[in-house]
Amino acid sequence: MKNIYVVLSSTPTMMGKLIRVFTRSFYNHSSISLTENLNEMYSFARYRASNPLVGGFVKEFPERFTLGKESDVCIKVFRIPVTEEQYETIKLFIYKIKNDSEENIYNSLAAIGVLLGCKFDTYKAYTCSEFVVRTLVEGNVLWDTCISKNVIPDEIHMLLEKYASYSGCLNAYKPIAGVNFDAEDFFEKSGAINEVAYTLNHFYRLIKRNIVYSFYIASKLSQINKIFTT
Length: 230
Fold this sequence. Notes:
This protein is of the alpha+beta class. It has helices at 14-23, 62-66, 84-98, 108-116, 128-138, 153-160, 192-229, and strands at 2-10, 29-33, 41-48, 51-59, 74-82, 105-106, 125-126, 164-169. The strands form two sheets. The protein has a six-stranded antiparallel sheet. It has a two-stranded parallel sheet with strand order 6-7.
């Protein structure tokens, strides 16, 4: 048997606070790790500290949660026992997204949908919670029928409660002690004009993918309907 780890966090960022207010949740972010010390922790989140609206698939590290500030974060860790086969399936799914030649991006439309009570399925785009849940479904840890249309971290908390192994401050989570995390270019600043351009391009791609996905689903449903009516 092996273990995978799901981490829910209540981040002190402005975006994190807004998400918690609108969803009435204690946690606002979800991640999944292949290791207990979180050196292989993944999610969908902002690419850079300076822009909360543009994001995608990221490898996470503790400083991301606080944007590098000297503050702590409340987290809850779930240690989920899985078979070797499940572990490899989950790892393969994560690495398939990581190495995909077509960028998987943050589903900002779905995040807005949570507030509006509607769902936006978008091609190769996830929120952090959608990604974690989809990974668990791929590994047969959870089933689609258990998940609501707009999953949020607190729902993951409810589904995984029996696997809870740690609840407290991130800095007090002993397995990360002594682990060196690579911050890469997370704190790099590109200027206000560039950030506006990145944001507009991000939403353009999201809307385009959403429209294409909607036409694809409509086409498939039409084909199925023809089969049953002929």
